[in-house]
Structures are given as C-alpha cells and as structure tokens.
C-alpha cells in the first residue's frame, strides 16, 4: 500500500514537472536569456585628428555568437549614452548569430577625445577604424578579404551608420533608427512655403523650400548640448535609443551614460589631453561649442553655423549609400520627425539602395524600439548579412497607437502597406480632404516670446506621460496667441500616415510697424465631442514667413503639419491651431500682431495609406502548447485511472460470507491509532452488534468497511471481495454511518429519489414504499429536510440505507434520536431483515440496545476487539440467575436442593445461583411452592457486567 | 433496565400509529426469504443493476445543483445585473465622459452587453466560476452526503468528473446568461446599433454578437485555471467557503501582483495576466497571439490543478 502510494505521488509529481517544463517550452517568452553571451572589452587607439600622431583610445566591447566566423554588426549608441546603453541589444544580436561590436564614441563614456557630432574626419573615421579591427578578427566572416559587416544605432548612432555606409565600402547593410538626415532642417526647421507646390518639387519637406533658416528648436538643442557636457548635472536626452526597452530599464542606462561620475569625466578629459576648452562646453569640440552658443543666444544661425551643421549631416553622404537600408523612425518624435527618415529613405533609394521603412509608435518623445522592431532589425541583418531567414522585403510597416478603455493602456496596431508612399505627393499618396472653418483671427506675438504655448516637454513627454495617449494631452495654448480652424465631426475614422497639409493666409495687422516676418507654429489637434484636445505625436510645425506686405495684404502659405501615424476616431473633430509661440522653439521677441485665416476654398489634406493589419501569424506555438498541455493532462489522468484499475480481488471461499476483516488498522497522520489490528467475521443472517464506548474505533471500522477510509494495514472483504474506495461490491451494502447526509433544501422524498438516481440503478429495484414505511415520516416526507428533527433525519437515513434491500445493512448508532417505541420497532425491523438471510451490522455504545437487538456481538475498546460471540454466550458466560425473595436463606436451601443447580449464594434480599439445566420457571415454581415470595427473577450477568468486565476499569474516565 | 424483552411479532407495535413500520418489516422479511443473492450478483461483486459508469448521471447531478438556492441566486443575480446597470446609467445620465467602454456602453445594445462583460471579468465571473467549481464537492462534504454518494458506490474519479462537467455546464450557461440578458436589455434601451470598439472601429450588430460570443469563448477557456484551483480546493477542504474563497483570493492576489510593474516580465506567468486580452477581439483584424498565450497559461495552471485534485481526492479519507 505504501509502495503504491509513494508511486502515485511520484506519478503526480512527475506529471506536474513535465507539465511545467512543457509549459515553459511552449510559453512564448519575450526575453531570451542572453546573460551567458561571451564578451570581451578592449581599447582601440585611433588618431585624434586625421593623419595626426596623437592618439586617443576608444572603449569598446565585442560580443561573440555561439558559432564563428559570423557576420559582424557595429552597434553605435545614442547621444549622451555610452556602449553600456546598447549592451542589451548587443546581446540580442549576438544571440542571433552576429559578432557585435559596441563602443563609446569619442567624447562619451570612457572613450577619450572630444565630441565632433559625427564629424566625417573623426567619429566616422573611428568607425572605419573599428571595421579595420573587425577585419582582423578570426571570428568575423570575410568575403574576399572584406569583413561582412552591418551598422546600426539609434539617433546619434543611426546617423553614424548612414555616414559610415556613405564613406566606407566595406559596410554591407545598415539600419539607422530614429535619426536625422539634415541637422539644419532638424534643428532649425521651417515647414511653410508660399508656393502651393514647392513641397512636391523640392522633393522633401526636410529640404525646406525656404532658403532662410527656420525656427531654432532650442529646447531640444539645449538638452542635447547639456547631454554632451558631463560636467553639468544634466538630464539625459531621454532618447529611447535602440536598447530602450519598453518602460523603465533603459532610461537608467541612458542616464548612466549621460552622467558619468566626476572621476570618469575628469579622467577622460585628463587622459585625452584635449587642452583648454571654453567654459560650459563639456566635451564638445570648440567649434561646435561656439556654434551652439551663437544659436542659443541669438536664436538665428550664422552662415558658418549652417555650413557646419550641413557638413555634419548624413544628407551629404546618402547619395553614396547603395547597401540595403532599414530606415526606422518613431512617430512620437519632436526631435527627428518622420520627415528626416523620409529624406534618408528617398535619397538612399535614389542612390540605388534597397530601402524598407518602418514607423513605430515611439521615438525621442515616447517609448524605445519595441521588441518587434528590434526583431525586424535582426531579421534585416539575418537576411542581408548572413543570408538567413526570409526576405524582409521593402514593404512599409507602421504602428498606430490606440488607447484602450478601462485602464488597458495603449496598444499598437501594426499595419503593412506594399510600399512606402513617402511624405511627398506622389501617385501613391492618397489624401482625404476635410473642410475646416474658422474666422481669420488676430494673434499676438508677446514681447520676449513669453508666455509661450506648450506642446509637451521635449524628450520628457514620453517619460512623464507614460503613453502616447497621455503625452498627447500635455499641451496648452495661450489665449490671444492662437487661431483655430475646426472640421465637422468625422463621419468615419481616418488613419493619417504622413504630413497633413493646410493652406493658410497670414497678414500683417494694419498699421503695425513690422519687419514683415512672422513666426508661427501649426498643430493638428484631435478634438473629442467633450472638447478634450489630443495632439498626436506632440508635434508642432514651425513656420517662418518673410516679406509680409506692410499694408496688410494677406500672403498664402502652405504648411506641412507634423508627420504622424495616427487614427482619428469617428465623431472626433480635427482642429488646426496656429499659434505665435512655442516653448520648445526660439520665437520672435518683438511684440507683433498678425491675422491668420484659412485660405479660401482649401481643405485640410490628410495623407492616408491603405495599409493592412499584418495578418498576425497564427500563434501555433502557444496553441500547440495549450493543446499539448491538455493532452498531457488527459494522458496522465488516464495513466492514473489505469493504475487505479484493479482486477477483481475475490476469495471464492468467502463469497457467501458478508464480512471478513483481518488485521485491520487505521493510524492517522497525527499518530493516533483509531483501529488497531482487528479481525472478525460476520456470517449471513446475523445481526451483529458492534459495541464499545465512544472512541473505541467502531465508526472508523465501518468507514473502512464502506471504502471511505483507507486502512493503513489489513483488509476488509465483503462477500469475498476486497473493499477499496468505490469497489463494486459496495453496491451490496446499505449504510448509515455517523449521521444523516441530505440536501437540506430538498424534501425527504426528493432526497431519496435523487440518491437512488445517483446510484444509477433502476428505480424498480429501490423499493421506495417499504423504505418510506420504515421511515414512517408520513406527510413530512414532502417537507424540506432542513425542517426535520434529528429523529426524522435519522429514520430517513435508515430508510435510505435500506433502499434496494441491500444484502448487508450497516447501521451506526441507529437508535440515536429515536424514541423508545421507535427503537423497539427498529429492532423488529432489523431482526426480520436478517432472518431472510441478509445480514445486519449495528454499532452502538448502548449495552441494552445491542443486547436486545443483536444475535452476535463484537466488543471493541481502544481500537481492539475485546470479545466476539453470540450475545447469549457473552451474557451467560459463567453467570447465573438472580431471584429477589423475602427469605434469601430459605430460598438458597430450596435451590441448592434442586438437581443441577450450583453455586447458590444468598444475599440480603436475593439469592443467586447457576441454574444449569433447570429452567428459570421451574426454579420459581419450586420457590413459590416452598412458600417463598418471589418478587423478581432474571439473569444475573447482564451485558453491562460482561462489558465492564471486559473493558475493565481503564475505560473509566 | 430498559423495556421488557418481547419475542413476539404481533401487530401491537403497528397499532401505535406513529410507528407504522411493522408491516413493512413483515414485507421485508418476506422479500428477504425469496431473495436469491447469488443470482443477482455480477462477477465484480456488484449487485445486479449497478454499473459504475452509470452512476451519478449528468442530468441527476444537474438537477441536484439546479435545485439549490445558491445556483438560483447566482443565475438570478446575473439576470438582475444588466437591469441594475441600466438603472445606474439612467439615474446618472449626465456627464458620461472619459471615453472608453463606459462612454460607449449606451451607444447600442451590443455595446451595453460588452460593457456588462467588461465590468464582470475581474471579479463577478471569477466568483461565479469559483462558486460552481469550489462548492460542488465541499458542500456535499458539509452536508455529510458525500460519504453516501461514495459508498453507493460512485467511484471517486467519476464523481469528480461528473461534478466538474456539471459545474462547467453551469459556468458556461452563467457566462452566456449575463451578456444575453444585457443584450436584450441593451437593445430595448439603446437600440440595435453597431458595436463600437474603444478604438473607434464599428461593426454591425450581427457581427457584434459574434464578437461577444468569441469573447465568452475566450473567457471560458481563460477561466480554466480558476476552475481547476477551485476543484482542487473543493476536494481538499470540507468547507465550501474555504474552497470558493480560496480560489477568489488567489485571483485577487494575482491581480494585485499584476499591478506591480516592478515584477516586469515575471508578470506574464501570473494567471490573470491575460484576463483582458479579449480586447483584441474588438479589432477588425484580430491578433490571436496574446489570447493564445492566455489560454496556454490558463491550461497549464488548470491542468496541474485538476491533476492534483484527482490525486488528492483519490487519496483522501472521507471523514465528513
């Protein structure tokens, strides 16, 4: 038994383990364990200046895949970060099978040198030097002596990837992420044009048709500058670069990179031996620092600054890029908008490179690259570097963030279009036009440009808002500084992909002295029916209009609104807001008023793309896992059932013996032994009494007889069959053990019927009428059991036990709660029941009960059998008859004189004797004849004596 | 000592009126005499007419459960809830804003039904599942009727299986009942307009009803873990409250842990992590990925719990 038990527990434990393992395998996990990717750090010496002998050292780490040689990926970090920031991505790529080289760019982390802002002579040459290093490594796959290498990175690192690809032929594929094309257009943008068509003809909104500089993006520029000056406790540019996983993690890494400890900063400067730098310039090169100081103080760049920024822009090199390029941009990005990626994509495509464009719902103002996007980058290199996996193609993929009600957060729906439509008007671009209306409104540019409208906090909106949805509501316009033009509620939802266009009229307020220049900021709001405005992507389009006629004649200006990927729901309105200020930009400081209106007969044009939801692949893994788990469970259940199956365990000789118990014990886990090795045998036709004080083990024995409790040792056989839980032979037993068990909300009748129905046996074999007769409940049988008295329940339970006239009837304390006539009747019933060859077992702690009901008796005490036998034998064993008489002495003489009478004893008022063969009646007759008055006569040794004698004094409390 | 010994079987006792069973006893005696035990017994020792796999038929157990007040109350509550919701919307009509399902609830009948599901997912439905599965065996134990069912004998695994099937039937019915009544109430109150999802997509009422059915189907699969746990607890304890409450507490605990974002990806192993992923069904192009993971998670937990329940019940000493 114990072996079997142990075995079963093993089975279930094994099952659970197998299930968990199967679950873990089938459980799709976002995170591979990449902690065991081997890596090594090293420092690489590069010339401080091209051709110079002075060297600076770069801090680098290389991550190695499982099998080498393998293609290499150069992974550059974002601005303000270091190689640590991209370690997670590096491990992911190494896990995919690439040699991944990360390094801190000069001026960052523990690398020496000064920040040159991806200067072609410095950072770009450094990258080539790193590729040189890769070429020498045995782990790196080479083709004709050239290393197979891809370059990727986010933001700063993304621009580097473009520039390296444009200058170094050894690069085989790139994946620039949330980066810029032209620093001038990115930092000093202008989104308006007088001409209705120039956006098309100029080829790109980034390449603004206005030759004049636009409006300085001062907030972002300031953030970037401080991020490059580690001596200042500056917030990191929360550029969720590659590696910025979903929510929290990356920000920390970024800040580590952006805020080196004083030691690090100091050491870097000292080792670099960079000489004196202007105060507040941090690790920037002096000419960059000077340019920034000029821009930040005047808000308008000099030609030198414009030339410098143009020199540092990837736009210079894109015409040389012919390698496969995955251009990834975020739609929550007020630093480098979709237009920058558009310019890169288009210029590379024109140069002959294979381009795939992906927009995700994040960016410098939102979350970092989600796992799916990192996966796409990996797949891009897999195919284009290693020749693995399916061709990612050149389809256009874009994510639409949707907020979900009920605290569901934001969900991103990824759509796929066959080709990238671009932001410029092409045949592929579809526009949905909406009429927007509003009166021409005078708008004031306040003196000093304050107070200014707020359109989110650059770089922090995503962090603060937590989701694009919340961030989109972090905005405020200043009354009197804004003109609004609103559409009707949309009849149906529209998904905007790209830069909406609007044409406005701007005029000088009559009579004002003016320079003829207006700086305006255009935004596209989604307005809900209750008036809540949401600014998708938090973007704002700055427009610098020059040459306004002084007489107040309006000029018409075409404005490219910020590029977004966003769905406006039906019922919402669209609103174009033109304001004179924006906190994030350097505005005009002279007070001036302009009048802004919508150009006549023009519409708000919304670019749309017929993208389709990427048919999400059927999650076979999870489905197979789910099916497999259930199948496994079923198999385990079946195995368990099979083990539970027993062949018939029958002792044929005992087939006619109702009960044979041998060596039966029950020891509970607590150590209490309820039944201790009892053996007994009950024959057909007996009414067996199981007698013992409370706690003698009677009920436990009966429960084991019914298969409710598993014996710890020994066995019970009923009609020769071994009793186990649910053994079929139990169907020949009718039982009432330790109280009734009825459904209290049903009537007694309903209870009996449902019980019998539960046994699955035919109704005709139940004998309800007889059972109900025995219960004797009368009309009460139709009342709810919960209204019954204890005795009524007792009788109903006994009736239930008798349903089907079982061959063996087991009744535990049947007399409890019955009144004397009922007890009497019960005896009669039991006697008659047994007389037909059936067997009855009755337990009781009442001596008289058993004595008067039973033919045979088992006396139990403390789990042991004290005596067995016929009631008559136990009662009579060695005991005599007692006569209560008036003259005991005389009576003793009379009795002693009779033949066969022995051991006569006279007491005060009685005389005792063993009558032997003499019938009591004869003895009484003899006494009476002798003139003795017999008041009472009866057996001396009633069961009580025998019982007490057997149980002994120890049972006394 | 006690009453005098009688050895007659006269009609006297029957004449006592309150004890009419002497005649029955006589009949019993008669029947017993004519009985031929040997001929009525099968090879496995069972009495003629007894078949283990015919015990506790589904319809019998269903009847036993349906007659219970708690079943009737639960189902009644699910019928009443939509009416209460409707009244709440009517009384507090103004200022329904903030977007989302609450705002959308009064747009159409289907949206109203969707809202009723939404508000029930995290607690009410869990209570229903925990109640039907957690109460089923423990209540028998508390009534002491379990021992008579098992001694009938209904094999233990069969008793558990039949009860689980009936609990599942009741659960599915309850989970369908609420949206069905809500749909009826909603269509009467707000018309048969289209289903508008929180993301602004709208589909016709017909398709909306299909979406509701798919949501319920997902929830039925998703709640297997609650069912499994409640089944394990119901065989492990003799108190229905312990089993139902235990399953409920586990669900609440899991939901609380799910709020702790610091747990990161560990949360996806929580059984309630995927409880709202049926939102994906509201999109016109359905992403099945998260729901499949939800079903897998639930099945792993559910299967382990059910296997444990079978094992525990099989090993258990019935002392109630």
Automatic annotation (TrEMBL), chain A:
The protein's UniProt keywords, in alphabetical order, are: ATP-binding, Hydrolase, Nucleotide-binding, Transport
* KW ATP-binding (keyword) present: yes
Which taxonomic lineage does the organism of this UniProt entry have? Bacteria, Bacillati, Actinomycetota, Actinomycetes, Pseudonocardiales
Checking Pfam families in the record gives: ABC_tran, Peptidase_S15, PepX_C
Feature: compositional bias, Low complexity: 230-241
Name under which the protein is recorded: ABC-2 type transport system ATP-binding protein
Chain intervals with Acidic residues compositional bias: 243-255
Q: Where is the ABC transporter domain?
A: 659-887
From TrEMBL, chain B:
| Residues covered by region (Disordered) | 1-23
Segments crossing the lipid bilayer: 73-92, 112-133, 164-190, 210-233, 240-257, 291-313
What Pfam family is a match for this entry? ABC2_membrane_4
Which branch of life, at top level? Bacteria
Q: Where is the signal peptide?
A: none
Q: Is Protease tagged as a keyword? A: no
> Which UniProt keywords are given for this protein, alphabetically ordered?
Membrane, Transmembrane, Transmembrane helix
Q: Is Thylakoid given among the entry's keywords?
A: no
PANTHER family hit by this protein: INTEGRAL MEMBRANE PROTEIN-RELATED, MEMBRANE PROTEIN
Q: What is this protein called?
A: ABC-2 type transport system permease protein
The root-end lineage is:
Bacteria, Bacillati, Actinomycetota, Actinomycetes, Pseudonocardiales
């Amino acid at each position: 038994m114990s072996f079997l038990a142990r075995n079963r527990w093993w089975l279930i434990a094994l099952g659970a383990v197998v299930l968990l393992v199967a679950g873990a395998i089938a459980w799709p996990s976002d995170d591979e364990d990449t902690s065991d990717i081997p890596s090594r750090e090293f420092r690489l010496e590069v010339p401080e200046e091209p051709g110079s002998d002075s060297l600076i050292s770069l801090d680098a780490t290389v991550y190695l895949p499982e099998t080498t040689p393998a293609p290499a990926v150069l992974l550059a970090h974002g601005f303000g970060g270091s190689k640590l920031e991209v370690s997670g991505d590096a491990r992911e790529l190494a896990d995919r099978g690439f040699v991944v080289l990360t390094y801190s760019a000069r001026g960052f982390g523990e690398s020496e040198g000064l920040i040159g802002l991806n200067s072609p002579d410095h950072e770009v040459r450094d990258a080539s030097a790193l590729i040189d290093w890769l070429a020498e490594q045995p782990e790196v796959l080479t083709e004709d002596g050239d290393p197979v290498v891809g370059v990727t990175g986010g933001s700063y690192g993304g621009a580097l990837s473009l520039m390296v690809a444009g200058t170094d032929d050894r690069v085989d594929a790139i994946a620039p992420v949330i980066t810029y094309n032209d620093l001038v257009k990115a930092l000093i943008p202008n989104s308006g044009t007088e001409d209705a068509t120039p956006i098309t003809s100029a080829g790109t909104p980034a390449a603004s048709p206005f030759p004049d500089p636009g409006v300085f993006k001062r907030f972002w520029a300031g953030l970037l500058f401080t991020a490059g000056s580690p001596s200042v406790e500056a917030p990191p540019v929360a550029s969720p670069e590659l590696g910025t996983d979903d929510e929290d993690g990356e920000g920390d890494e970024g800040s580590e990179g952006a805020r080196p400890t004083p030691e690090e900063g100091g050491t870097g400067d000292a080792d670099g031996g960079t000489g004196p730098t202007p105060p507040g310039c941090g690790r920037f090169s002096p000419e960059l620092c000077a340019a920034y100081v000029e821009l930040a103080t005047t808000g308008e760049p000099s030609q030198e600054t414009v030339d410098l920024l143009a020199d540092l822009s990837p736009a210079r090199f894109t015409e040389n890029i012919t390698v496969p390029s995955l251009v990834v941009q975020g739609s929550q990005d007020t630093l480098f908008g979709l237009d920058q990626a558009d310019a890169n994509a288009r210029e590379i495509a024109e140069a002959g490179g294979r381009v795939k464009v992906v927009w995700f719902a994040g960016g410098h103002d939102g979350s970092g690259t989600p796992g799916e996007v990192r996966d796409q980058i990996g797949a891009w290199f897999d195919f284009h570097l290693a020749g693995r996996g399916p061709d990612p193609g050149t389809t256009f993929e874009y994510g639409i963030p949707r907020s979900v009600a009920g605290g569901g957060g934001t969900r991103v729906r990824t759509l796929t279009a066959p080709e990238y439509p671009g932001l410029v008007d092409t045949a592929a671009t579809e526009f949905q036009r909406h009429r927007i209306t509003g009166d021409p409104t005078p708008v004031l540019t306040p003196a000093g440009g304050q107070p200014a409208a707020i359109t989110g906090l650059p770089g922090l909106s995503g962090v603060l808002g937590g989701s694009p949805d919340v961030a989109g509501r972090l905005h405020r316009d200043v009354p009197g500084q804004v003109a609004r033009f609103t559409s009707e509620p949309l009849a149906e939802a529209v998904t905007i992909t790209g830069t909406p266009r609007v044409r406005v009229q701007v005029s000088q307020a009559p009579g004002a002295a003016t320079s003829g220049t207006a700086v305006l900021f255009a935004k596209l709001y989604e307005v809900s029916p209750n008036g809540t405005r949401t600014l998708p992507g938090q973007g704002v389009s700055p427009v610098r209009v020059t040459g306004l006629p002084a007489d107040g004649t309006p000029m018409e200006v075409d404005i490219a609104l910020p590029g977004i990927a966003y769905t406006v729901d039906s019922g919402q309105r669209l609103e174009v807001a033109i304001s004179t200020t924006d906190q994030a930009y350097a505005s005009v400081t002279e007070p001036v008023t302009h009048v802004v209106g919508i150009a006549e007969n023009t519409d708000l044009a919304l670019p749309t793309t017929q993208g389709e939801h990427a048919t999400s692949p059927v999650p076979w893994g999870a489905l197979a896992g789910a099916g497999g788990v259930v199948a496994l469970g079923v198999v385990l259940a079946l195995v368990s059932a099979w083990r539970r199956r027993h062949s018939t365990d029958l002792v044929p000789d005992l087939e006619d013996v109702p009960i044979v118990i041998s060596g039966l014990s029950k020891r509970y886990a607590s150590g209490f032994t309820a039944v201790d090795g009892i053996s007994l045998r009950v024959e057909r036709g007996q009414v067996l009494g199981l007698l013992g004080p409370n706690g003698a083990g009677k009920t436990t024995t009966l429960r084991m007889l019914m298969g409710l409790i598993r014996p710890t040792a020994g066995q019970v056989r009923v009609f020769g069959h071994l009793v186990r839980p649910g053994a079929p032979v139990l169907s020949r037993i009718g039982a009432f053990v330790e109280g009734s068990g009825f459904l209290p909300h049903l009537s007694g009748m309903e209870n009996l019927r449902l019980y019998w129905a539960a046994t699955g046996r035919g109704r005709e074999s139940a004998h309800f009428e007889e059972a109900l007769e025995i219960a004797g409940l009368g009309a009460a049988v139709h009342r709810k059991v919960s209204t019954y008295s204890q005795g009524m329940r007792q009788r109903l339970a006994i009736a239930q036990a008798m349903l089907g006239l079982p061959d063996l009837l087991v009744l535990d304390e049947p007399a409890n709660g019955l009144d004397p006539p009922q007890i009497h009747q019960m005896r009669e019933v039991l006697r008659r029941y047994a007389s037909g060859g059936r067997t009855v077992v009755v337990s009781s702690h009442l001596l008289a009960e058993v004595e008067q009901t039973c033919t045979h008796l088992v006396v139990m005490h403390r789990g042991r059998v004290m005596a067995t036998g016929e009631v008559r034998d136990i009662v009579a064993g060695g005991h005599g008859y007692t006569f209560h008489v008036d003259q005991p002495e005389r009576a003793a003489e009379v009795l002693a004189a009779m033949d066969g009478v022995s051991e006569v004893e006279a007491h005060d008022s009685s005389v005792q004797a063993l009558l032997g063969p003499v019938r009591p009646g004869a003895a009484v007759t003899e006494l009476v004849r002798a003139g003795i008055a017999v008041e009472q006569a009866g057996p001396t040794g009633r069961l009580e004596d025998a019982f007490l004698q057997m149980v002994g004094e120890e049972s006394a409390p | 000592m006690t009453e005098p010994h009688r050895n007659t079987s006269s009609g006297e006792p029957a004449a006592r009126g309150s004890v009419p069973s002497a005649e029955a006893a006589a009949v019993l005696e008669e029947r017993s005499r004519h009985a031929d035990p040997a001929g009525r017994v099968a090879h496995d020792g069972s009495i003629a007419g007894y078949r283990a796999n015919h015990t506790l038929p589904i319809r019998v157990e269903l009847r036993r459960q349906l007659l219970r007040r708690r079943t009737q109350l639960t189902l009644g509550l699910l019928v009443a809830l939509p009416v209460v919701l409707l009244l709440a919307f009517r009384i507090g009509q103004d200022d329904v804003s903030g977007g989302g399902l609450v705002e959308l609830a009064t747009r159409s009948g289907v949206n109203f039904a969707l809202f009723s599901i939404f508000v029930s997912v995290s607690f009410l439905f869990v209570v229903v599942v925990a109640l039907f599965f957690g109460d089923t065996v423990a209540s028998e134990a508390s009534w002491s009727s379990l021992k008579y069912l098992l001694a009938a004998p209904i094999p233990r695994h069969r008793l558990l299986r039949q009860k689980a099937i009936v609990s599942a039937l009741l659960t599915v019915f309850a989970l369908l009942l609420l949206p069905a009544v809500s749909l009826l109430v909603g269509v009467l109150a707000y018309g048969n307009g289209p289903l508008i999802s929180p993301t602004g997509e709208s589909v016709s009422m017909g398709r909306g009803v299909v979406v509701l059915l798919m949501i319920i189907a997902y929830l039925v699969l998703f709640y297997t873990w609650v069912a499994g746990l409640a089944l394990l607890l119901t065989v492990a304890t003799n108190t229905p409250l312990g089993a139902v409450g235990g399953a409920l507490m586990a669900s609440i605990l899991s939901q609380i842990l799910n709020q702790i974002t610091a747990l990161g990806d560990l949360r996806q192993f929580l059984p309630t992590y995927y409880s709202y992923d049926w939102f994906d069904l509201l999109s016109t192009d359905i992403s099945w990925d998260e729901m499949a993971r939800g079903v897998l998670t639930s099945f792993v937990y559910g299967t382990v719990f059910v296997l444990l329940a079978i094992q525990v019940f099989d090993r258990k000493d019935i002392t109630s």
